[in-house]
């Protein structure tokens, strides 16, 4: 066996354990420990060649008429007690048979019949919230970030179970081992531009719109990918939620800030805890506007700007950008057309 690999895992040239060694390596044995360290040192088994080439991304591998059956590994509530709703982190095993790229979506077909038309429930799309390697780095799992959709009757103040979101509640109520009918992966709109590693990314999200950006940030700042090794730009995340308890994956963003203070920026818009410059509630467009000059400069220099979340976010965002553009003597209509033509403008709202 290669002496270098043995040494990396804490074994001498004869395969005997030498101290010091990580406890995990002892419990796994020499061969598994070597394989694990190889994966940590060189995580590129799901990469294109070259890694930034998007010509052969996986696309619609599984369709509605012949979906894939995944299996739930875990469901975890990821918001605090004072959050305005329940959001869950759901890890699904696909066994490597449903590969995807960061920024793509999976379709989920909830079981049951739609009472409105008597037909099986239709597919719902969810942005994938992990990198292509999955949170376990095996390339065999994917994570979804799902907010439970409920309806509260304004007159009674009580939830109406007949009007709750069929698929979101199915997913949030799932337990490990539950089978999930899935389609996809789908979408090219939210892919990262990796060919130029100096490209800045401006990522704007409301609520579970954070999902694709978690994949981006893990790929660039958490995992040992070719993209991470090459990246020299700045990734700037804006997240809008109601309050601090509604923040999603905050511990991950804080860790990225500590480790990469020059390459990762983070700004929150907490509508029930912060005020904008006019004294009103701080919405996502207000927070972005605080940095309008810098954002316009970045766009001029080739930055890509992403929007993901509820479609209601976009009117406020575009009105703000149009207003700022006018103050700079820029035609926003022409600027937006230029950004779209250059592939710098990415929108996925629902």
Properties at a glance:
350 residues, alpha/beta, Elongation Factor Tu (Ef-tu), domain 3, Rossmann fold, 3 domains, six-stranded antiparallel beta sheet, five-stranded parallel beta sheet, 13 strands, 28% helix, 22% strand, disordered N terminus, ferredoxin--NADP(+) reductase, FNR, FAD-bd_FR_type, EC 1.18.1.2
Could you characterize the architecture of this molecule?
It catalyses: 2 reduced [2Fe-2S]-[ferredoxin] + NADP(+) + H(+) = 2 oxidized [2Fe-2S]-[ferredoxin] + NADPH. It comes from Diacronema lutheri (Unicellular marine alga). Its cofactor is FAD. Belongs to the ferredoxin--NADP reductase type 1 family. GO terms for molecular function: ferredoxin-NADP+ reductase activity. A hairpin with a 4-residue loop joins strand 4 and strand 5. Helix content is 28%, strand content 22%. The N terminus is likely disordered. The protein is an alpha/beta fold. It contains eleven helices and 13 strands. It has a six-stranded antiparallel beta sheet, covered by helices on one side. It has a five-stranded parallel beta sheet with strand order 11-10-9-12-13, sandwiched between helices. It has three domains: 39 residues, no CATH class; 119 residues, Beta Barrel (Elongation Factor Tu (Ef-tu), domain 3); 149 residues, Nucleotide-binding domain of ferredoxin-NADP reductase (FNR) module (Rossmann fold, 3-Layer(aba) Sandwich). The termini are far apart. It is globular.
């Amino acid at each position: 066996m290669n002496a270098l690999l043995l040494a990396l895992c804490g074994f001498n040239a004869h395969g005997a354990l030498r101290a010091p060694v990580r406890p995990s390596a002892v419990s796994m044995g020499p061969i598994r420990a070597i394989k694990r360290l190889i994966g940590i040192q060189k995580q590129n088994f799901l990469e294109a060649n070259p890694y930034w080439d998007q010509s052969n991304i996986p696309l619609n591998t599984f369709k509605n008429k012949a979906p894939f059956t995944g299996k739930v590994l875990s469901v975890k509530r990821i918001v605090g007690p004072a959050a305005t709703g329940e959001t869950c982190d759901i890890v699904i095993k696909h066994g490597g048979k449903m590969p995807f790229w960061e920024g793509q979506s999976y379709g989920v077909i909830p079981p049951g019949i739609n009472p409105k038309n008597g037909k099986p429930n239709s597919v719902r799309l969810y942005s994938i919230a992990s990198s292509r390697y999955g949170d376990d780095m095996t390339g065999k799992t994917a994570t979804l970030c799902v907010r439970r959709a409920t309806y509260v009757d304004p007159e009674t103040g009580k939830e109406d179970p007949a009007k709750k979101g069929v698929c979101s509640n199915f997913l949030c109520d799932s337990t490990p081992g539950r089978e999930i009918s899935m389609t996809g992966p789908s979408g090219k709109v939210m892919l990262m531009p990796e060919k130029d590693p100096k490209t800045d990314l401006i990522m704007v999200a409301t609520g579970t719109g954070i999902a694709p950006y978690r994949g981006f940030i893990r790929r660039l700042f958490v995992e040992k990918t070719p993209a991470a090794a090459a990246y020299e730009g700045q990734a700037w995340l804006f997240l809008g939620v109601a309050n601090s308890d509604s923040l999603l994956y905050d511990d991950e963003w804080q860790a990225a800030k500590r480790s990469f203070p020059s390459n990762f920026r983070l700004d929150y818009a907490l509508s029930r805890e912060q005020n904008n410059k006019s004294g009103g509630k701080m919405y996502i467009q207000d927070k972005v506007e605080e940095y309008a000059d810098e954002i316009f400069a970045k766009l001029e220099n080739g930055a890509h700007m992403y929007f993901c979340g509820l479609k209601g976010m976009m009117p406020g965002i575009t009105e703000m950008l149009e207003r700022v553009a006018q103050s700079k003597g820029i035609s926003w209509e022409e600027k937006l057309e230029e950004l779209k033509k250059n592939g710098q403008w990415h929108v996925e709202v629902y």
